[in-house]
Amino acid sequence: MNWYQTVKHLICILCLVLTFFPQMTLADYQPDFREANERISQWVDKGYYEGATFIVMRDGQILHEMNFGNFDRHTNIRIASMTKWLEAATLMTIVDQGLIKLDDPISKYLPQFDSNKSFATIGQCFAHTSGIGSIHGHLPEDQTNSIAHRVNQLAKLSMPDDPGKRFEYNGNAINVAGRIVEIVTGKSWELVFAENIAKPCKMYKTYTGMNWWYVGKRLKDDPFPTSNATDYLHFLEMLNNRGMYRGKRVLSENAIQIMQADHVGTALMEHDFIRRTRNREHTSVYGLGQWRENIDDNNNALRVSSPSYLGSYPWIDLENNIYGVFMGKANEKAMHRDKFSGFYASPILSDIAAKAIHAYDLTGGAYDFSPLHQMIEQWVNTGSLPGANLMIVCKDRLVVNQSYGCYSADMPVYIASAGKWLATATIAAVVDEGKLSWDDPVSQWLPQLGEEKGKATLRQLLSHTSGYPTYQPKNKPRDTYQTLALSVEHLKALPMVCKPGQRFDYGGLAMQVAGRMAELASGKDWPTLFNERIAKPLGMASTRFTPVDSGPGHAPMLGGGAASTVQDYMNFLNMIAHDGVFNGKRILSKEAVQQLHADQMRHANTQEETFLRTIRSAHHHGIYGLGVWREEVDATNHATLLSSPSWAGAYPWIDRQTQTYGFFLTHVDTRVASRHRFNAFTTTPDIAPLVRKIVTQSQTTHK
């Protein structure tokens, strides 16, 4: 093969690569859980579940979430034996308080348990080795829904097996331990669960079903335990964090270790759960309230779970540092018809998840973001930030998707100046159409602003070098205009601060003029323009521009009035990071994106601007592009770190050095923040360099 044929052959291979490896979308950034999704889809299609949700997490971030049928993470269902884990954790809070010991015999608190029953311990009750599970005889229906009444019934029946002799999986003995908790605390079981587990872990729609209560509030009809995926994942997060939930301790580390330890010992094992789900046997199958599915050579648990007979399945994979939950609304008739057992079938999902995450980690996908989470949790715990959402993508892979405090993932939040990037991109779309030019003078579109203001260009309006005043004076109408046209009229009488191009003054009024120019050039109002050019093509259904004033009918505040969700804004950053392309469709030209990020300061004086000196302890002349800060530049003055921070704390950024972009969504509580001297505008940008450090260290480790 000569050199020409060789080159031709290589070009053909390159074309095939480009064909089969298009730009990735957010759905592609995650580990590959398609095998699990397909299996669950088959179960739903066969009618075993009316609907389901499957969620896998690591370090508090969602690695995978998929809903099936009319079901999502907020759907409450009966959870049956999944409560055993919750109940064991509740018990351990009482052990932590020193009110009981696991080795205490139950007769110490319940003298009605005599003969061989008296020797059973509280720990054995939750390990299913107390012998109470083997009690035979008819237990009449308990119309009182009282744990005390149920326990008294158990005490009257014979117990053929001595304590510690046999592992027998059922719930009788758990009621006995629950009654002891009521006695030593002087509180009902439901109240102890609410105070010690449910409320600290924000499990507001979970109750354990020992009786008819749900976090201290009476339910109407259903005495069965219920929960949803959101609640249960909060609980698993606490366990996975060694007893800590969002910076607060719920259980001691010792309690977590005790729960995961082997509590079966030499008891006879006749249950086939481990054999049927793991295709192997070991005798150390159970801890306290949880199955020990996998163990190492030293008998340490590697994977623990608490499946229900209805087929829902929560687990923690200690070996791979992931946890998750599969929850589905079971159709017991269909399961019985096909002899399908969700109890034995659903644990395969943790195997699939382990395989997916192992492959993901081999590609260098694992980053230790714990320092980042700790920093943000400190901000939230002080009350300066009521909550936050954070998403980070590195090399086209989603590596962080985390909510903090009271925020939920789909929560729209006012983002203040983070909207400047969105507004400028919208205007860039009009420039792409040839209807505007960056160097159009204001006088071309708005001659009523006069000669001095008319000399400013569109470029200068969006780079804060127009010479216009930054905000309305206190004695002038402030953000109460009804249209962008009216906002321009309000600006008309204000004096210029300096000549256009002379000085950088960060503010918002000039952007109103730029927005009005875009309206006139396109023939459309701003909401329509933004929706058609940016929001709709990028799937930003929850993003809009609003006035700062909350009254109806007011014009949008381009420089500080946008509201968005973390996912919406990440779609925008995805497009910007890929030079104007999103999901294979061009939204902005590459030239437009380059203009946004280029140095637009020219001869403007930037020495009085303190923002970059404050957050980066450095200053360079080319600090701003169009609607975006150029936080860092390389030796050729190309921006390597871009952002659009806001006084409210919202912080989007693109780090070209590590091929990372992200969005931290929050809105500061100014009253609390002032007490703590917390400046969100200059503090949340700490996220970008910390992320860079974490990513760089991980990449070095994987080389």
Topology, element by element:
Layout: H1 3-20, H2 34-45, E1 49-58, E2 61-69, E3 77-78, H3 83-96, H4 122-127, H5 147-155, E4 166-167, H6 172-185, H7 189-198, E5 213-214, E6 217-218, E7 226-227, H8 229-240, E8 244-245, E9 248-249, H9 253-260, E10 268-269, H10 273-278, E11 291-295, E12 301-305, E13 313-317, E14 322-330, H11 332-337, H12 342-345, H13 348-362, H14 370-381, E15 387-394, E16 397-405, E17 413-416, H15 419-432, H16 442-445, H17 450-454, H18 458-462, H19 484-492, H20 509-522, H21 526-535, E18 544-545, E19 562-564, H22 566-577, E20 581-582, E21 585-586, H23 590-597, H24 611-616, E22 629-633, E23 639-643, E24 651-655, E25 660-665, H25 670-675, H26 680-683, H27 687-702
Parallel strand pairs: 4-10
Antiparallel strand pairs: 1-2, 1-14, 3-7, 5-6, 8-9, 11-12, 12-13, 13-14, 15-16, 15-25, 17-19, 18-19, 20-21, 22-23, 23-24, 24-25
Helix pairs in contact: 3-6, 3-7, 5-6, 15-20, 15-21, 19-20
